Amino acid sequence: MSEQDRGRKAKPPLSKVRRDQNRREFLRTLGLGVGVVGVSLAGLLPLIGAANARLRPPGAIKDLLDEQQFLAACIKCGQCVQVCPVEAIKLADLLDGVGVGVPYIDARAQACDFSCDGLQCVLACPTGALTHELNFPADTRMGLARLDRPDACLAMQGKGFKGLARGPEFRGELRFAELDRWTPVAVADHPYDLELCDLCVRQCPIEIRIIECAAEQPPEPGQVARVAEKIGNECPPRHAIALEPMPSGKGMMPVITDGCVGCGVCEMICPVEPTAIVIDIDRVTQVPA
Amino acid sequence: MSYILDSLRHLLGLPVERPAPERQSQEVKFIYERKSQERLTKETLEAIEAAHAGTAKRHKWRNRRWITLIVVNLLFVVSYQFDVQLVEGAMTASRVVGFHFADLNSALQVSLAYKHMVLNLVIGTVTVLILWWLLGGRTFCSWACPYHLIAEWAEWLHLKLAARRWVANVRFHRGVRSVFYAIFVVLALATGYTVFETISPTGISSRSLIYGPGIALLWVLALLLFEVFVSRRAWCRYVCPIGLTYGLVGLTSPVRVQYNVESCHHEGECRKVCLVPHVLDITIKGRAEDTHVDVAADCTRCGLCVDICPTDSLTFKVKGLDKVL
Predict the structure, then answer these.
(1) For residues A209 and A234, what is the distance between their CA atoms, to the nearest angstrom?
(2) What global pTM score does this model have?
(3) Would you write out chain A's pLDDT as a tens digit for each of its 289 residues?
(4) Closest partner residue to A25 among B88, B172, B180, by Cβ?
(5) Which of A52, B143, B193, B275 could be a cystine partner for A99, CB 3.0 to 4.6 Å?
């Protein structure tokens, strides 16, 4: 070390004023740090009691452990929102804490009816938060339908339904394939006249697809599978919901079976207020291997 | 090499020593010596500044930058609202005419929390890494980040109030940004949640613009109020890990602002408008190592200093471009 270097290294001791300034700056900075980190950690609070648990788009597999994985993997970009043809997907707000900007579906307002066929939200997801490990709507497990208010169910009372399922003001849409294969129609533009209310079964995307599959001509070997795979619309292997006769003999009861994917269309279309059928997000059935 | 090391010290908030005389070139020493003999009068300096203030160049880069920033952010909005699929998604991740783009800091947070990166995310991250490396790193901050623009307007208000002595800028230690960076990395890794994204005003304001406003904007508003009444540009200066991420990308980026000692009058106007004035300490008389010095990587390439300099002593340059052409 040269003479010159040593001279430069030996700094004069800091004055008392300067030391005071440094100390105050340190304390202020510490305050800033505690404040910002504190606010960011408050984002974890809604996790307590799963207060931010919601119905998620297809591919966000639903149990409490996976919800953590889903929240971790989501980059909060909303590309799933943009591709959904029925605009079922919304982004959560700040009250969801670490779930801010994460997609969810309010099924009663607008359920996922798979009218995109190809699981567009899954394809749009850049991070795998909506897992690519599913190919068809029937592989999805978002939740499981449950008859929450059997007493209110029109079918169980043996009643029919005539008119608009959710009234003229309702904004939700569904695809009615018999009307238009590609464009969803407003539920408010689609009146029903039913002897016995079977809306939850009639509009179930899984049941609709099973009926379509049954009506199709037996394909050339190997041909339909390719087409079906292309549009992501393979025949569901199991039923999701059916009306079964009541033991009393009067009315019918909606029975949810293990093909239910929890898409929420039944909850959306149920004409009683509040809905008789709901989606539980903490239960799913096994996807058949 | 010393550019990268000095830049790293700037980015981390460590003190950067004034250069030792033996590290300064003979040419620059000669320039400084000549300047101390031929001092310009206050009147001359004021006349030069007044002449510059009236020219079209006064807000050239700021205007270009604001237009770019607004267009970039509107592309997101227009793509969604009119379904034209140019830039789908938000600032955190998007598809630009079908190609995956992922914000580097968001991708980092997601990867640390999820502990897994799907191929699309890798592609998006690498694309964005190359893009912003080519464009200057923290160029992202001043040319793309939506929060930056509103923070600039809040800063204008802060400076108005400060000029009337109604508010005083509270300073913090710049090193705290690196501490925040480490904390948010550890939090993502340890909790398994992207904790920083919850409070990121970049993500919140971008999503609000595209998908509609929400309560989260109150947080952005709180930050702006803090910046207006308490501490100038506090979020960008002391907190934002996005800035540090892109700063690291910019360490070796070819796009830089270059300082020319010869023509500089050392008035210090550039440091007054700068978001990160420590990178312009080289413009203080005696601080430059050579006749031309590149401004360190913490610089957001916003061009405010280029605009305000009455003698063109600060200019944009692309390293190596002259050799290529």
Answers:
(1) 8
(2) 0.91
(3) 444 444 455 667 888 999 999 999 999 999 999 999 999 999 999 998 888 889 999 988 655 557 889 999 999 999 999 999 999 999 999 999 999 999 999 999 999 999 887 889 999 999 999 988 888 888 888 999 999 999 999 999 999 999 999 999 999 999 988 888 788 999 999 999 999 999 999 999 999 988 888 887 655 555 555 555 545 467 888 999 999 998 887 899 999 999 999 999 999 999 999 999 999 988 777 776 5
(4) B172
(5) A52
Chain B within 8 Å of A37 (Cβ-Cβ)?
Answer: yes
- Domain ranges across chain B: 1-69+138-325
- ipTM value, please give it: 0.91
Q: Give yes or no for a contact between B194 and A98, defined as CB atoms under 8 angstroms apart.
A: yes
Q: By three-state DSSP, how is residue B250 classified?
A: helix
The torsion angles phi and psi of B94, rounded to 5 degrees, stand at -155, 175
Query: Are A267 and A146 spatial neighbours (Cβ–Cβ below 8 Å)?
Result: no
Distance of CA B43 to the CA centre of its chain: 33
Contact B303, B317 (CB under 8 A): no
Phi then psi for residue A243, to 5 deg, are -90, 130
Distance of CA A10 to the CA centre of its chain: 65
Q: A24 to chain B: nearest residue by CA?
A: B172
* For helices B60-81 and B201-211, angle between their N-to-C axes, nearest 10 degrees: 50
CB contact under 8 A, A73 and B110: yes
Shortest alpha-carbon distance between residue B14 and chain A (Å)? 14
The 3-state secondary structure of B96-159, one letter per residue: ECCEEEECHHHHHHHHHHHCCCCHHHHHHHHHHHHHHHHHCCCHHHHHCCHHHHHHHHHHHHHH
